[in-house]
Amino acid sequence: MNGPPEPFKIKMIEHVNMPDQKKRSQVIREAGYNTFLLKSEDVYIDLLTDSGTSAMSDYQWSGLLLGDEAYAGSRNFYNLERAVQDILNYRWIVPTHQGRGAEHLMYSYLVKPGQIVPRNMYFTTSRLHVELPGGKMVDAIINEAHDPENLHPFKGNLDLKKLQGYIDEYGIDKIAFVNVEMNVNMAGGQPVSMENLRKLREFCDEYKLKIIIDATRSSENAFFIRDREKGYEDIPIVDILREMMSYSDGCIYSAKKDCLVNIGGFLATNNEDIYEHCRNMVVIYEGLHTYGGMAGRDMEAVARGLRESTSYAYLKYRINQVHYLGDLLIKAGVPIVRPIGGHAVFLNALKFLPHLTREQWPAQTLAATIYEDSAVRSMERGAVSKGRDKETGENIFPLLELVRLTIPRRVYTNTHMEYTAESIIRLYEKREAIPGLKMVYEPKYLRFFQSRFEKIK
Ligand code: P71
Questions:
Q1: pLDDT attached to residue 4
Q2: Before 191, cis peptide (omega within 30)?
Q3: Is 426 assigned a catalytic role?
Q4: Is 257 a catalytic residue?
Q5: Which of 33, 77, 107, 123 is catalytic?
């Protein structure tokens, strides 16, 4: 058997379409070879993202009916507050419509113009919310994370020598805070170890630096700590989460991932100044501090989902499914990022399509080609996502030029994984025949969402 069986059964299904070859070629051309611009009804298996795409449980759905839609003081806010206190061990929470709302409130308070924010790799919205108040995000992840084949078990770890280097180069006053992402998305869903967090806390205490966690995928990170780190084998996920967060001054959380909901987010902290400021700001940008852009029913679903995300049996099934897809590809020799991460399998487009130049956008090309072959939708995570250098205006070509096959939680079966793997293996066998793309339209912000391409003849 391929890992543990699902710790749930299916109560309701959603029909999906399988467009034929002619239709697939037509719609991906019309979408400018950008998978973000496809209509969902033209997609058979949607691996664009694990964000907001999970299947809720009957316990979460039933919570929707208990939504208290009062403008102020909704009971569901207090349920959410209690869940965050119980599981993440923060005293105060400010709800937001989704993760980037929390990033906006937290980072616009903590970042002053000219300051830098070291982080274990970057994430697109996080970087933008550091840049908008005049800051700059700099990379402080261990070098192993930039090597898609390095098998380090905690490739999300921060490199304290790099942090020291930034302090020496810029001066301590120029560091706004240290940002730690759990199960680092852009590195391939790679975890941070507890030992690294502990050492980081000691390091930051010496310099009185704040640590803010991006806790978006913290339950999945906790699973890897339990599975891989000595001393945590028998520790409940909740206790691991509480310890992880105890090394920080606060977190932002996109509930659309590990909390198993379609919309929602929050920030949480034990720092009274951060709380006071964000609770003030939330009413300007999101909504009153007891709903922050979410309906009461959404907050209930987040509260219940956060609790469900701490089930070890669920996490084991979840991460095992991601590994099932990755292992099928590894067996066929397809180049992927290793170790296989928590939420997605990342194809190494530079190795898959070595005949393309970086300006022919190998990852964008591969994502479009996979759709054309099988109606499976994936996401470019390479130079198009990375964007241009703010100072020179030149394209930045990161070492990682990847296609992300992101697995929604509790949505697809292993047969769907097999179908996906078969398509990619088929393409890998005829990879030399795959032509590149040229960019014909580029928007100013977060260009990967709306840029358009044409096939090079
Ligand atoms: C993902 C997303 C959603 C996304 C965002 C931007 C471009 C494409 C897709 C969102 C995250 C995230 C981390 C670590 C904050 C956010 C923003 N990820 N931190 O991976 O992964 O949260 O989407 O709720 O605003 O597809 P938000």
A1: 84
A2: no
A3: no
A4: yes
A5: 123
Q: What is the pTM of this model?
A: 0.96
Q: Residue written as tokens 């339950």?
A: 219
- At 1 the pLDDT is 58
Check residue 223 and give its pLDDT: 98
Could you tell which of 48, 216, 263 is best to mutate to test the pocket of ligand 1, judged by most ligand atoms within 8 Å of the CB? Answer: 216
User: What CA–CA distance (Å, rounded) separates 383 from 400?
Assistant: 8
Eight-class DSSP state of 141: B
- Residue 106 and residue 109: Cα distance in Å, rounded? 5
| Spans in the chain with pLDDT lower than 70 | 1-2
Amino acid present at 169: E
Q: What residue ranges in 62-143 does DSSP mark as E strands?
A: 92-96, 116-119, 136-139
What size, in residues, is the chain? 457
Q: Is 127 in the pocket of ligand 1 (CB under 6 A)?
A: no
**Residues 44, 295: Cα–Cα separation, whole Å:** 30
- pLDDT of 65 reads 98
Q: What one-character-per-residue DSSP string does 96-107 give?
A: ESSHHHHHHHHH
Indicate the Cα dihedral angle 47, 50, 56, 60, nearest 10°.
Answer: -170
Distance 226 CA to ligand 1 centre (A): 25
Per-residue pLDDT tens digits for 189-209: 999 999 999 999 999 999 999
Cα three-residue angle 448-452-456, rounded to 5 degrees = 120
Residue 5 to residue 316: CA distance in whole angstroms? 10
Pocket lining: 181 vs ligand 1, CB cutoff 6 Å: yes
pLDDT tens string 6-42: 999 999 999 999 999 999 999 999 999 999 999 999 9
Output phi, psi for 288, to 5 deg.
Answer: -55, 155
Residue that the structure tokens 């059964």 belong to = 9
| Pocket lining: 450 vs ligand 1, CB cutoff 6 Å | no
Task: Residue 241: name the closest of 260, 224, 263, 266 by CA.
Answer: 224
The residue assigned the tokens 């020291």 is 164
- Please state, in angstroms and as integers, the Cα–Cα distance from residue 151 to each residue in 35, 119, 148, 400, following that order: 30, 21, 8, 15
**Probe target for ligand 1 pocket from 220, 257, 404, with the most ligand atoms within 8 Å of CB:** 257
Report the b/e string of 309-318 with b at 16+ CB within 10 A: bbbbebbbbb
- Give the C-alpha separation, 104 to 285, whole Å: 9
